[in-house]
Each structure stands twice: as structure tokens, then as C-alpha cells.
């Protein structure tokens, strides 16, 4: 028979251990495709690629689930103006697409935004209870100085910035302050790839080791395989350094997941229509 006093002492001891000292959860990671952009030029994704090459690119959000958290890495887009302009195929509102995993919008506890481009940020307001994480410098630049010139906010949507401001004033926005920052135990964000002013990518601890979610800091597997920077970057050399770092962080290169490569939906086990488990 166990003694009540001993059990109480153990419980008190464990309660006093800080969260950072406790083992990090092993997360499940899923890629959820919510649309396809047909015939997208590869030269806009991979520096130096043949200008005549085109592929159908995957529009994806990533679900990170574990330790009592349901995290979305990027949130896609849904506003009508983007649907009219880009004419995506097989479109599902991101908040509905994650339903294939049994996730309701209000179930999402955290949203991590890789960067402020419309196709990664626009859907953030679809998840009303989530705390939104974005790099502090990214937020400050694209809600401020970037709008002082017409040439410094390409791909940034004013309505998305207003939604971020609203999340901030509502107390639902938190800043990631620079490189190599823990957002949750077992989930860290890294800056320096320079897709945008201060874009970030994530490293997630899973049963298979560290998975790196690159988002647009590495558009396609081809970027990594050819050691070619992304075509849309503020600093090509910095982008290559970030890709090299991703290889150091990931348990193996196969667990580096690019932002728009449809091959990610074929390389990992399918668990639902348009959904694969990455870990």
C-alpha cells in the first residue's frame, strides 16, 4: 500500500518543477492542403529556374498537435478578392480544411505566422480563440514603415494588417523576439531566411525527431536539392544559410517541409483527403 504522505510529497515536488524542465511533448505534424494554384512559374520560386517551367503548387497549412495544444503554422487565405484574382482550384476555407482532422476553428490554441504575405496570414482571423505569434520585427515593419513606399509591401494586404492590429489590441497577439525562440516546449522558431523582412520557420519535436516547417523560406524541395535560394528573398545568401541550418536542425533532410511543393502530399502517409502526417 502506498503512503498518502509520500504521494503528497511527490505531487508537490512535481508541481514545483518549471515547465521548461519537464519533457517536451512529441507532437504530431500534419500538412493540410486547402487549395491548388495552377500553372505557377517555377522561376518565381527557385532562383535561376527555367522561365518556361510551371507547376501546380500546393496551398497548405500545417497542424502541430500535442501536449494539450492545437497549433496552426500559417493560416492560408479565404477573402473573396484573393479567390477572384488567383482562381485557386479545389479551394476549401482553411478553417474548414482542418476539419478533416476533426479540428474546429475554436479548437486551435495557437497560430504561428511564418510571414505576413496574404496567402499565409489572411486566415488568421478564422481562429477566434487562438493566440497569434509573429516575429516582432515583421509585425512592426509591415504595420508601419513598409507603407511609406509603394515598393516595400509587395504581397502584404492592408486588411490582413488591420486584422493583426485588432488581434493585438484584443490581447491575442504575441511577439517572437528574434532567432531561436521557444514558442512552446518542443517548438522553436528561427529567423534569418529573409523571405520577407523577418520571416520565420519552425522546428518541431516529434516521434521521428525534429521536423522543420520551412514555409516560404524554402518554396520547393528543389531549393534544397539544388542549393538554390528562393526567387523571392531580400537576401539570397542569407536564405541559403537558413536552408543549411534547416539541414542541421532536422532529424534528416526528408523532414524539412517546403512551403508550396505538392510533393509533400505524396511523400508522407495520407490520413485524410488532402492531409498527410509528416512525423
Explain what this protein looks like in three dimensions.
An 8-stranded mixed β-sheet has the order 6-5-4-3-2-1-13-12. Strands 7-8-9-10-11 form a 5-stranded mixed β-sheet, covered by helices on one side. It has one domain: 4-Layer Sandwich (Metallo-beta-lactamase, Chain A), CATH 3.60.15. The chain starts with a helix and ends with a strand. The protein has helices at 4-15, 80-86, 94-97, 118-121, 136-142, 158-169, 221-225, 236-249, 264-267; strands at 28-41, 54-66, 69-73, 110-112, 131-135, 173-176, 181-184, 187-191, 200-206, 209-215, 256-258, 270-272, 275-277. It is of the alpha/beta class.
Would you spell out the secondary-structure blueprint of this structure?
Layout: H1 4-15, E1 28-41, E2 54-66, E3 69-73, H2 80-86, H3 94-97, E4 110-112, H4 118-121, E5 131-135, H5 136-142, H6 158-169, E6 173-176, E7 181-184, E8 187-191, E9 200-206, E10 209-215, H7 221-225, H8 236-249, E11 256-258, H9 264-267, E12 270-272, E13 275-277
Parallel strand pairs: 3-4, 4-5, 5-6, 10-11
Antiparallel strand pairs: 1-2, 1-13, 2-3, 7-8, 8-9, 9-10, 12-13
Amino acid at each position: 500500500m502506498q503512503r498518502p504522505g509520500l504521494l503528497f510529497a511527490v505531487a508537490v515536488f512535481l508541481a514545483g518543477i518549471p515547465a521548461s524542465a519537464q519533457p517536451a511533448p512529441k507532437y504530431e505534424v500534419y500538412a493540410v492542403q486547402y487549395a491548388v494554384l495552377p500553372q505557377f512559374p517555377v522561376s518565381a520560386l527557385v532562383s535561376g529556374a527555367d522561365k518556361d517551367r510551371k507547376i501546380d503548387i500546393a496551398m497548405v497549412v500545417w497542424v502541430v498537435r500535442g501536449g494539450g495544444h492545437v497549433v496552426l503554422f500559417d493560416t492560408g487565405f479565404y477573402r473573396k478578392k484573393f479567390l477572384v484574382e488567383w482562381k485557386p482550384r479545389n479551394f476549401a476555407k482553411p478553417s474548414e480544411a482542418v476539419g478533416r482532422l476533426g479540428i474546429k476553428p475554436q479548437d486551435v490554441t495557437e497560430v504561428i505566422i511564418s510571414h505576413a504575405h496574404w496567402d499565409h496570414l489572411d486566415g488568421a482571423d478564422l481562429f477566434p480563440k487562438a493566440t497569434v505569434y509573429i516575429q516582432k520585427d515583421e509585425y512592426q515593419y509591415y504595420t508601419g514603415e513598409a507603407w511609406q513606399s509603394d515598393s516595400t509591401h509587395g504581397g502584404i494586404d492592408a486588411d490582413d494588417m488591420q486584422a493583426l492590429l485588432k488581434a493585438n489590441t484584443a490581447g491575442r497577439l504575441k511577439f517572437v523576439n528574434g532567432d531561436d525562440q521557444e514558442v512552446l516546449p518542443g517548438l522553436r522558431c528561427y529567423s534569418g531566411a529573409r523571405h520577407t523582412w523577418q520571416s520565420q520557420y519552425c522546428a518541431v519535436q516529434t516521434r521521428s525527431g525534429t521536423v522543420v516547417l520551412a514555409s516560404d523560406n524554402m518554396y520547393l524541395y528543389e531549393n534544397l536539392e539544388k542549393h538554390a535560394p528562393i526567387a523571392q528573398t531580400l537576401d539570397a545568401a542569407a536564405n541559403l544559410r537558413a536552408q543549411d541550418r534547416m539541414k542541421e536542425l532536422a532529424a534528416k533532410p526528408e523532414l524539412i517541409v517546403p512551403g508550396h511543393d505538392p510533393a509533400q502530399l505524396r511523400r508522407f502517409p495520407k490520413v485524410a483527403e488532402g492531409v498527410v502526417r509528416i512525423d
